Amino acid sequence: VQLVESGGGLVQPGGSLRLSCVASGFPFSSYFMRWYRQAPGKERELVARIGPDGGSKNYADSVKGRCTISRDNAKNAVYLQINTLKPEDTAVYYCQTRMRVVDYWGQGTQVTVSS
Description:
Elements: E1 2-6, E2 9-11, E3 17-24, E4 33-38, E5 45-50, E6 58-59, E7 67-72, E8 77-82, E9 91-99, E10 102-105, E11 109-113
Parallel strand pairs: 2-11
Antiparallel strand pairs: 1-3, 3-8, 4-5, 4-9, 5-6, 7-8, 9-10, 9-11
């Protein structure tokens, strides 16, 4: 199993980013996918999740209305669009999936929101 995130960077407050995660090594279209983030000195938190068929979307209250999770099963990819970015969105963003009782994580992509 391999999860590779990309798309992070430095963005000004109010800006937008689209994060991508490309998966391999497992039947991607059969599994829920999730985005987590971890800010310095804070616990890792669940940002959004999406069901195998693209339904069953859920968002953390902190990003609801500013964030859209989506997936393309033909490309084995899951995306996170974040709009109206705030300094408190600064974190390392990880994509994750769970098979049976095992969690798999990518290496993360850094998002920094600063003027």
